[in-house]
Amino acid sequence: xxxxxxxxxxxxxxxxILDLPVPTxxxxxxxxxxxxSTINPVDVKTRLPDTPQEVSTFPAVLGWDLAGVVVTxxxxxxxxxGDRVIAMHxxxxxxxxxWQQYVTIDPNLLAAxxxxxxxxxxxxxxxxxxxxxxxxxxxxxxxxxxxxVTGAVGSVGGMAVQLATLSxxxxxxxVSRPEHxxxxxxxxxxxxxxxxxxxxxxxxxxxxxxILGQPRLLKPGGKLVTVSDDRIPNALAERARIADHNYVxxxxxxxxxxxTLVTTGALRLRVAHHYPLSxxxxxxxxxxxxxxxxxxxxxx
Length: 300
Hints:
Elements: E1 2-6, E2 15-19, E3 30-39, H1 41-47, E4 60-61, E5 65-72, E6 84-88, E7 102-105, E8 111-112, H2 119-122, H3 126-139, E9 146-150, H4 155-166, E10 170-174, H5 181-186, E11 191-193, E12 202-207, E13 218-226, H6 234-239, E14 242-245, H7 252-263, E15 271-276, H8 280-289, E16 295-299
Parallel strand pairs: 9-10, 9-12, 10-11, 12-13, 13-14, 15-16
Antiparallel strand pairs: 1-2, 1-4, 3-5, 3-7, 3-16, 5-6, 6-8
Helix pairs in contact: 3-4
């Protein structure tokens, strides 16, 4: 099978296409034919040296998002050959990830793919939606409270805007480019801006862009959750009642519920760019350039 892997830490040249054996599923695993995956910022960080993300073995196939079709599954599982499924499936210590044509996975980690979109689009859901959803759970906002989402048209930020709006939270979107304000409003934000507005203090901030140097944006006693690896400044931590990092965890039941929200039209998925696996270097280059309206997807 074909796979895209990194052979060392480094530049785009560290990415290469390999021929690997098709993995063999144990009696308790499902074998999935991968249709598509995505490139997330964590994949770029994992490729680069001197970041918190580490690789246990090289070559390493990366990729956290999985969309595909069940080939085999344990008889006692909920899945049958031909089922369209999605999952959050982080790179494994064995060197396997989602940027390969077949994966083995615990069937309990799978969720049904949305029925109203193709698998190319569906693969944008797992990591971004679970990250946003779990961060919002940590913030535990009440209807009518005011939330600032930074990086609000990125994959995680865009999910957070939509999910918070569905819960009755008033969302202000902070975006990197003025032309992205319209997208943020279309996702449900009450207001959108591309520069800091010192006139407002928010009940909570969900930071998806690593923007932590503006403590005045959070009202005293407010709440902050960030997906950045950066240290939260003391001035911000002292102002907040809660100031913490968010680390996503598996929740296939909730992923299934989020998939249903896509099927019903309540949650919108966005593909910014689509590349074949063989063009993995250009796909990475696009992610590194930033300013995306949605996710970069690769067909496997």
